[in-house]
Each structure stands twice: as structure tokens, then as C-alpha cells.
């Protein structure tokens, strides 16, 4: 009857409002005038029939949630029954847009459980869903919602799913009553989807889950929240402090709004949850409900595990392998009965990070008997970070720092140095420990290949590049690679590449970083990549999940350089010629296209003045600071520097078969013939072999190079590759001897840190925009022997490597 009434009202409204439509229909047809009303009426009935059910659902939802009196009830079960009695059947239809994050939570959980199951495929998992409403055990205190679940399971014929009408704070599974069954640690997977905030005695529930969750079990929670007024050390350990924070208006409004429905969003609830369990993944989002960007309810998704989980592997990776030897002593456990089961190593974030961590008062648990009997009370600022509970320990723990806010994105989406030339001179062996700048991670990954790269595929017989005498043995790989970068986004990028090698097949890997776009990146992120990413990296890529929607290499700061190059090429009308240049079958044909078509445009006066001589463009697009610009401007002009860079590349290297740095610049993607080694099928399979054991050597540091070397300790490194880092420092040669001794410049401190961390005979490699950089004298003064490996002569047409961007390549040996 309600549908008929709605249809009649809709038809009446349409008759009144659609008189112009009727007149227009009459003019288009030869039917009598009354037929226009008939057509309008038929259209109105069709619209009414199409929208009647959705409108009914919306009205029912609005009535039950916002207007219907809850009445008086003595307990939580009565309130839940009254609240959901009239909307149990439409619960799922109305919650998809309101309760965001549930699908993400389940996808992340499935991905982590899938990786976990690889260790013991035969193990039977026990899943408890608390507040499932609409396993496997589905536990709820609301009978109407539980009845909907029961009907669905019966319709699907699922015999291993059981619906339990119980109070979550005292839940007991049926099988626990069997003789010989120990409920302690019996749960492998527990989920709570928008139910934790509805639990009056939340503390007792969290304690009970903590008691019965397996040490290797997974707890997944999705719920609304409001943040605390002040940041806590726990949030810094978990990461994503900025998006976690809520404005005062958001905190005030949603906290009190949800109180009307007996939903408690007080920040202490989430803090206590994260205090009790170790966070593996965390994501903070905003629910754009009904009116996007107006009604934005904060929600979170947390994947957690027991603090009894074995973290010995992570402790070794961070303390011994990564040099985090400064630790914090954990608080003594308050329950001697459980102390023997726990061996919690210290946080070990390093002095530079710990000095930024604010003090944090201990959370107090419930006074209930259940809570006291199972509590584990460890001060939050002494707990292990989310890094310790990941599947792989690539990323060394760090805390969000104010300096990290200066980096909104990655600067380099690809690496500018030629690793092939590096490998000829590094002389890597299996006993080497290498420190390098993270950048985009391409060259750090290349260190794993040593000299196995195939010159027949990389070069061209008529290339002007010369191959120097090779040090080291083909196939030798360093035992440790420390990648260092202050920009956390560069670390996130290298993490994603490592995760891609671990989790994806070659074609997906190629689409991401070869083509630079993938139609299902968000799905890959949640279902495959997430177990191999830290919480910090997952949060970053979740927020930037559009990075691979069209062209990854046009994003980030380096993407602006490629965008401007693309504009200049289009403006100059040479787009077809650029494509022909990149696909020229021989070096001679490539050189001819450069000489006649590309060179007059790309090396024109207006390009040089508008872009290459512009300090803002040099820094924001190319990552060249003013100090580095002064290094080469003291020897040549901007115009001549550009000529000396591009002419030798065009005349002496073959883009189609190896000079992939310019391939990605000109076409914003790689090709199968011209790409970094980790993107070739052979390279991918080499790194993926033996359960990606070759990648275990990576340690990614988010800190200054000085802090990292201090933590690594004396004689801990044998090779350091620091790119063009030293060009960024000011020229301090004019400093007096007294100043050098009492207040040395930052570069002097860096060189001294290198000298301390390198073993005798250790080597430092760097590139410089200048031919004779001023700081070589500092190395000699601090106990190094310096030699120039390559020097790019002004006006020469012979490249020193496939990039040829730098004026010189140097090596310093510790005496």
C-alpha cells in the first residue's frame, strides 16, 4: 500500500511540474493532446517504481536512527533490540555508505592470514566475529541482527558458522566445554566491525580477547573514533599522526552526537586497544556520508596481534643488523604467572627518535576481576613499534618527526645515476656492507645483481661508452644494504618496490613500475601488497592510491620535470620525432633525429632561460638546490652544461636498448628493452627466487646519514655510495682552522662519520655536478685518498655513463 501511495504522490507532483514536458511531447507526436498526460503519467509511475524501495529504506533508516525513541531499558541487550528491531532486514543496505572500512578490514585481514597460512597450511583457523550482527563464530548481543545472520548462513548451506547470542565481555565458545580443550590462545582471528564503541564494558572485552587470542593471532577492528587533544607516543609509533588527528569541532560534535545512541567514541577506547595489542596496520579515514566533505565521520581500521608474539627476528634485524643499539627498558610485568611466557625486547628506535618521543602516562585497566587476572601493563612509550610485527623487516623503525612534514611526496620517482658504471668500480663481494641514498630505490636494488647484468642486452655495438676494468666477481652480492633517506616518502617507494617483488607476479610488477599504471592498484594494495608493507607505508599508499591510475612517473616532484618536458615537446611540435628517437633501431639513426629535430628545440635559448636557468625549476622539478647549481656554474654556464649533458647521450648511448633514464623522461614509461634490471623478467625472477631471500639484506632508514652511521657503529660499513649529496652543502673551504676545529661544517661532520663507520680500506663513491668539487680537500684532510674515476670534459661528445648528468665521478679510500 505504501508503494501505491508513494507512486500516486509522485505522479501528482510530476503532473503539476511537468506541464512543459507534456506540451513538448504533444509537439513531437501526432496523438491527441490528452496523450501527453498519459505519457507523463506512465513516466511518473516508472520513476516511482524504480525509486520506491530505496526511498523506503532511507526513510526507515532515518526514522530508526534519528527520530525513533529508544525507550527505557535496563541493559545493553534491551537497547540493542529496540534500536535494531525495525531495521535489521535493511541493515546492510543502509550501512555500506555509513560504515566505511569494513571491506578494507576484511581484505587486509585475508591477505595477512593468507601469508600466515603458508607457514602451516593444515592448521584449522578459529574466527570469532564480535558484534557480527548481520567465522567461524558470529557473536552478538542483539537477537534481531543475529537472526538475519543465521538465515543467511542457512541459505548458503554453511555448516561451520555458528551464531552465539552472548555478552562479548564473557563470551565462551561451545567447544571450550569439551574435555581437554584449553581456551587460552584458542582464537586465531577476531574481528570487531563497529561494535567496540557500543560495548559498555569495553575494557573487560579487550582483556578477554587478549587472553584468548593466539600469540600469532590476528585482531581486526574497524570503528568510528575521535582523537585525543594531544598526540601520544603510541600514535607516533603506529604512524600517520596527521590524519589521525581531529579538529576540536569534530571531536566535540561526533563524541556527543553518538552518545545519544549509547555509542562511546572517547579517545581512551582506541588508546587502550592499541596499548593492549600490537598494531600491524593502521588506517585513518573520513566517512563522506550523505554530503561529501560536509559530513565526515572519522573512522579507523586496525590490524593487531598479541604482544606475546615472537619478535626475535625483528629485534635482530633492528638491533644487530641496523644498528639500533640504544634501547629502552620495558616495565616489569605485573602478573608473574604470565611473565615466563613473555620476552619483550625494547623499542630500539634510536636516540634521535626517542629524544622526540613525548612522555606518556600509563593507561589504567578496568578493576574487574577478569581484567586484573589477565592484564599486561607496559608503558606505551616503551612498547614495540608496529614495525616489529610485520612479515618482513625491511624498514627500520622511526617516529614521525616535524622534519618529515616538509616532504609531502617523493622527490625522485626514478634514479638518475647509472648503476652499470657503479658496479664496474664498487667491487662488491659477499662480505660487503653497503650504505646508499634511497632515492627511488632503483640503484639500491641493482646492488643485488652485482655484475650479472647482460651487456649484450644493455648496450649497442656502436655505443661510445667504454667499459672500464671490472673489480669484484660477477654474481657477488653484498650481505647488507642500508638505504638512507630523510624523506619518508622515498622509503615508502622503495618499500612498495620490495613488496611488489615479494607479492606480485611479473606482469603486475611490470604494469606498476614499467608502464607506470595499473587499473587495480588499490585492490593489489589491500589483497597482496599489504602484508609486506609497514603500517606507515600502507597508510601513505592508501592515501595516494591514484598514483598509478594514469602515469606514476608524472607524479611526485620529479613528475613536474617530466610534465614540463612533455609540454616543451608538444609546444615545439616534435612529439612524433621524440617517439622516433626513442625507437630508433640504430645509434646512427637516433643521432640524426637528435641533430635535425630535437636538439634545436630542447637546447633552444627559451628552454634554457625559462627552465634550466630558473632556480625554482631546478629545485622543485629536478631536485637541484642552489648550492649544487653553484658547483657547476663556477666552471661553466647553464647552457653549456645542458649541451655537455645531452649531446653525448644522444650521440653516444642508445635509448632503445639501454639508456632507460632518458626513455622514462621522454615517454614517461620504460620499455622491456630499456629499463632497470629489477624490471626485466630475468631480474625479477632472480630477486624473487628462494622465497625472496635475497631481499632480506635490505634495511631502510628514515633519518640523516650522520645519525644512521653513528648507530651502525665503528667499522660496520665497507662501501658508501652517496650520489651527489655533498653538492648540497655550502662551500666551507674558506673557514679558518679554528672554526674547523671548534665548529666544523655539516659536511665535515658527515665525512668524519663516514670515516668512523667505514672499515680500513672502505670506499666512498660520489658524483658531482662540478668537474673538481671543492670538498675533495676535506676528504684528504680527514684521512682519505681521493681519486677521480670519470671527468666529463667540456665540449666533449663522449658520455661518461648512460645518464651523463654529472660532471665527475669520484672515489675516496679510507687510509
Counting DSSP H or I runs of 4 or more residues, the number of helices is 36
CATH superfamily of one domain: Vaccinia Virus protein VP39
Shape descriptor reads: elongated
In round numbers, the mean pLDDT is 78
CATH topology of one domain: Rossmann fold
The largest sheet has its strands arranged as: 3-2-1-4-5-7-6
Pfam families: DUF3419 (PF11899), Methyltransf_23 (PF13489)
Organism: Leucosporidium scottii
Protein name: Methyltransferase domain-containing protein
Keywords: Membrane, Transmembrane, Transmembrane helix
Question: What features would you describe in this structure?
Answer:
With 815 residues, the protein is of the alpha/beta class. Among the domains are: 20-67, no CATH class; 98-175 and 182-309, Vaccinia Virus protein VP39 (Rossmann fold, 3-Layer(aba) Sandwich); 558-667, no CATH class. The strands form 2 sheets. The protein has a 7-stranded mixed sheet with strand order 3-2-1-4-5-7-6. The protein has a 7-stranded mixed sheet with strand order 10-9-8-11-12-14-13, sandwiched between helices. Strand 4 (187-193), helix 8 (202-212) and strand 5 (213-224) form a beta-alpha-beta unit. Helix 20 (488-503) packs across helix 23 (535-543). The protein is elongated. The model is unreliable at 1-22, 28-32, 325-381, 454-461 and 469-474 (pLDDT under 50).
List the helices and strands and how they pair.
Elements: H1 2-17, H2 19-28, H3 34-67, H4 76-84, H5 91-95, H6 102-117, E1 127-130, E2 137-140, H7 143-156, E3 162-165, E4 187-193, H8 202-212, E5 213-224, H9 233-238, H10 241-244, H11 248-259, H12 267-276, E6 278-288, E7 296-305, H13 312-321, H14 336-339, H15 351-354, H16 369-374, H17 419-426, E8 433-437, H18 442-446, H19 455-458, E9 480-484, H20 488-503, H21 506-515, H22 521-529, H23 535-543, H24 556-571, H25 575-582, H26 587-602, H27 605-612, H28 615-620, H29 626-633, H30 638-652, H31 660-667, H32 681-692, E10 698-701, H33 705-712, E11 717-721, H34 737-742, H35 746-757, E12 758-768, H36 776-781, E13 784-791, E14 808-814
Parallel strand pairs: 1-2, 1-4, 2-3, 4-5, 8-9, 8-11, 9-10, 11-12
Antiparallel strand pairs: 5-7, 6-7, 12-14, 13-14
Amino acid at each position: 500500500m505504501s508503494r501505491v501511495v508513494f507512486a500516486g504522490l509522485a505522479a501528482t507532483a510530476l503532473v503539476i511540474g511537468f506541464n512543459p514536458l507534456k506540451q513538448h511531447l504533444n509537439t513531437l507526436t501526432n496523438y491527441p493532446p490528452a496523450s501527453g498526460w498519459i505519457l507523463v503519467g506512465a513516466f511518473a509511475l516508472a520513476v516511482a517504481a524504480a525509486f520506491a524501495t530505496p526511498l523506503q529504506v532511507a526513510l526507515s533508516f532515518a526514522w530508526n536512527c534519528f527520530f525513533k525513541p529508544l525507550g527505557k531499558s535496563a541493559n545493553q541487550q534491551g537497547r540493542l533490540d529496540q534500536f535494531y528491531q525495525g531495521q535489521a532486514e535493511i541493515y546492510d543496505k543502509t550501512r555500506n555508505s555509513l560504515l566505511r572500512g569494513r571491506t578494507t578490514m576484511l581484505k587486509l585481514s585475508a591477505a595477512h592470514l593468507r601469508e600466515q597460512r603458508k607457514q602451516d597450511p593444515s592448521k584449522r583457523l578459529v574466527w570469532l566475529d564480535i558484534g557480527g550482527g548481520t567465522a567461524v563464530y558470529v557473536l552478538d548481543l542483539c537477537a534481531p541482527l543475529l537472526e538475519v545472520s543465521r538465515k543467511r548462513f542457512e541459505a548458503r548451506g554453511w555448516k561451520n558458522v555458528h551464531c552465539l547470542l552472548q555478552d562479548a565481555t564473557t563470551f565462551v565458545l561451545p567447544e571450550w566445554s569439551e574435555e581437554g580443550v584449553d581456551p587460552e590462545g584458542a582464537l586465531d582471528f577476531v574481528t570487531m566491525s563497529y561494535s567496540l564503541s557500543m560495548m559498555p564494558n569495553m575494557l573487560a572485552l579487550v582483556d578477554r580477547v587478549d587472553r584468548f587470542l593466539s600469540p600469532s593471532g590476528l585482531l581486526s577492528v574497524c570503528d568510528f573514533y575521535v582523537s585525543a587533544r594531544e598526540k601520544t607516543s603510541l600514535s607516533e609509533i603506529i604512524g600517520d599522526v596527521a590524519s589521525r588527528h581531529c579538529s576540536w569541532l569534530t571531536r566535540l560534535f561526533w563524541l556527543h552526537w553518538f552518545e545519544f545512541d549509547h555509542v562511546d567514541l572517547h579517545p581512551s577506547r582506541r588508546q587502550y586497544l592499541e596499548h593492549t595489542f600490537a598494531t600491524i596496520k593502521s588506517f585513518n579515514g573520513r566517512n563522506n556520508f550523505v554530503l561529501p566533505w560536509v559530513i565526515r565521520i572519522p573512522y579507523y581500521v586496525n590490524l593487531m596481534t598479541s604482544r606475546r608474539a615472537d619478535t626475535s627476528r625483528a629485534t635482530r634485524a633492528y638491533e644487530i643488523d641496523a644498528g639500533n643499539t640504544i634501547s629502552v627498558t620495558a616495565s616489569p610485568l605485573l602478573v608473574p604467572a604470565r611473565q615466563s611466557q613473555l620476552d619483550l625486547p625494547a623499542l630500539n628506535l634510536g636516540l634521535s627518535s626517542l629524544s622526540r618521543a613525548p612522555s606518556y602516562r600509563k593507561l589504567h585497566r578496568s578493576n574487574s576481576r577478569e581484567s586484573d587476572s589477565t592484564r599486561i601493563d607496559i608503558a606505551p612509550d616503551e612498547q614495540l613499534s608496529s614495525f616489529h610485527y610485520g612479515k618482513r623487516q625491511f624498514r627500520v623503525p622511526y617516529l614521525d618527526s616535524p622534519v618529515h612534514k616538509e616532504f609531502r611526496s617523493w622527490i625522485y620517482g626514478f634514479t638518475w645515476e647509472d648503476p652499470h658504471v657503479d658496479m664496474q668500480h664498487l667491487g662488491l663481494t659477499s662480505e660487503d656492507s653497503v650504505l646508499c641514498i634511497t632515492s627511488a630505490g632503483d640503484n639500491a636494488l641493482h646492488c643485488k645483481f652485482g655484475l650479472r647484468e647482460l651487456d649484450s642486452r644493455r648496450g649497442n655495438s656502436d655505443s661510445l661508452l667504454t667499459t672500464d676494468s671490472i673489480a669484484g666477481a660477477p654474481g657477488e652480492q653484498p650481505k647488507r644494504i642500508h638505504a638512507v633517506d630523510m624523506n619518508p616518502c622515498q622509503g615508502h617507494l622503495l618499500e612498495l618496490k620490495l613488496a611488489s617483488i615479494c607479492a606480485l607476479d611479473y606482469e603486475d610488477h611490470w604494469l606498476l613500475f614499467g608502464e607506470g599504471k595499473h587499473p587495480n592498484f588499490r585492490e593489489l594494495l589491500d589483497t597482496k601488497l599489504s602484508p609486506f608493507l609497514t603500517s606507515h607505508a600502507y597508510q601513505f599508499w592508501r592515501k595516494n592510491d591514484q598514483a598509478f591510475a594514469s602515469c606514476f612517473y608524472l607524479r611526485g616532484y620529479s613528475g613536474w620535470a617530466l610534465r614540463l618536458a612533455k609540454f616543451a615537446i608538444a609546444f615545439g611540435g616534435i612529439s612524433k620525432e621524440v617517439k622516433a628517437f626513442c625507437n630508433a633501431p640504430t645509434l646512427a639513426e637516433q643521432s640524426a633525429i637528435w641533430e635535425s629535430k630535437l636538439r634545436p628545440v630542447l637546447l633552444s635559448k627559451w628552454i634554457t632561460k625559462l627552465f634550466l636557468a630558473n632556480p625554482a625549476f631546478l629545485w622543485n622539478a629536478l631536485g637541484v638546490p642552489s648550492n649544487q647549481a653553484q658547483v657547476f656554474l663556477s666552471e661553466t654556464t647553464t647552457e653549456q652544461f645542458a649541451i655537455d649533458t645531452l649531446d653525448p647521450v644522444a650521440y653516444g648511448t642508445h635509448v632503445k636498448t639501454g639508456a632507460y633514464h632518458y626513455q622514462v623522461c621522454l615517454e614517461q614509461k620504460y620499455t622491456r628493452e630499456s629499463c632497470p634490471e629489477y624490471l626485466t623478467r630475468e631480474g625479477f625472477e632472480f630477486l624473487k627466487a628462494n622465497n625472496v631471500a635475497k631481499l632480506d639484506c635490505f634495511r631502510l632508514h628514515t633519518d640523516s646519514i650522520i645519525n644512521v652511521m653513528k648507530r651502525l657503529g665503528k667499522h660496520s660499513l665497507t662501501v658508501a655510495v652517496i650520489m651527489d649529496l655533498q653538492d648540497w652543502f655550502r662551500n666551507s673551504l674558506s673557514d679558518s682552522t679554528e672554526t674547523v676545529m671548534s665548529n666544523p661544517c655539516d659536511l665535515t661532520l658527515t665525512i668524519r662519520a663516514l670515516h668512523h663507520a667505514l672499515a680500513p680500506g672502505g670506499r666512498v663513491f660520489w658524483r658531482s655536478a662540478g668537474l673538481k668539487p671543492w670538498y675533495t680537500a676535506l676528504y684528504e684532510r680527514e684521512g682519505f685518498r681521493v681519486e677521480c674515476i670519470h671527468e666529463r670534459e667540456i665540449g666533449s661528445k663522449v658520455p661518461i655513463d648512460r645518464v651523463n648528468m654529472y660532471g665527475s665521478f669520484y672515489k675516496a679510500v679510507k687510509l
